[in-house]
Design a protein that fits this description.
Glyas_Bleomycin-R_OHBP_Dase, alpha+beta, 20% helix, 4 helices, 236 residues, VOC_core, Glyoxalase_6, 2,3-Dihydroxybiphenyl 1,2-Dioxygenase, domain 1, globular, eight-stranded mixed beta sheet, single chain
């Protein structure tokens, strides 16, 4: 048994509006796949979607997860920043300092993301969404590698990273200390390759914890990873 990463999902007070923002920034198309919210095709070799699920929660702190967008040239970086600002993003300070070569922005609902300078070797060939950068432990990076069947491509000084065997977006964890859980954040939606309950049991054996034994309205099962981040296992 295994799961594939079906979607990286935003908690959104206005899912349609937030989906339009990210579609505009990244040039993505909406998909009509069955989903509890709005979904965009990421167009990334890692094969996931961007999901926007309705949530009444308000942002209370810096997200533990954020996207790093790549640039092919200084002009491309500037154009991405300008396009995002025109669509409703704003500059934000997460402690990057005045000399940072990357640009930190927040989308219309306050979700932070970075537009990385050109020439970043670690993100070379990963696509426009070069990385999902996460605040998290080495243990949680190993958990997600086993959960998704993605090999570790970095494991040093308590920092880890995994990547699909097909390439595309890397998922990285920066090691301790962990920021407080902001509640409203980005989350993983997993699609099991077979029986949902069998996959839930496998994930529990890897270190996940069950949030609620009942299924949600869409049949998804809600779990947390070893760092306490919520994720969903969808119906097969």
């Amino acid at each position: 048994m295994s799961s594939r990463l079906f979607a990286i999902s935003f908690d959104a007070q206005q899912p349609e509006r937030l989906a339009r923002f990210w579609a505009g920034v990244l040039g993505l198309e909406r998909t009509d796949d069955a989903y509890d919210g709005v979904a965009l095709l990421s167009g990334n070799d890692a094969g996931y979607r961007l999901g926007f699920r309705p949530s009444p929660a308000r942002k209370a702190g810096q997200n533990r997860l954020h996207f790093d967008l790549t640039s092919s040239s200084p002009e491309d970086q500037q154009e991405t920043v300008a396009r995002a600002l025109d669509l409703g993003a704003r500059h934000t300070d997460v402690g990057q300092g005045p000399d940072a070569s990357h640009v930190v922005l927040a989308d219309p609902e306050g979700n932070e993301f970075c537009v990385i300078e050109p020439g970043n070797d670690f993100l070379a060939g990963c696509g426009r969404i070069g990385a999902l950068a996460c605040d998290g432990s080495q243990a949680v990076g190993c958990f997600w590698g086993k959960a998704l069947g993605w090999p570790l491509v970095w494991d040093q000084d308590e920092e880890t990273a995994i990547q699909s065997p097909d390439g595309g977006t890397k998922i990285t964890w920066g090691g301790p200390p962990l920021m407080p859980d902001p509640g409203k954040d980005l989350h993983f939606d997993l699609a099991p390759d077979g029986d949902q309950q069998a996959e839930v049991e496998r994930l529990l054996s890897l270190g996940a914890k069950r949030v609620d034994s009942a299924h949600g309205g869409d049949g998804a099962v809600l779990l947390t990873d070893p760092d306490g981040n919520e994720f969903r296992v969808l119906t097969g």
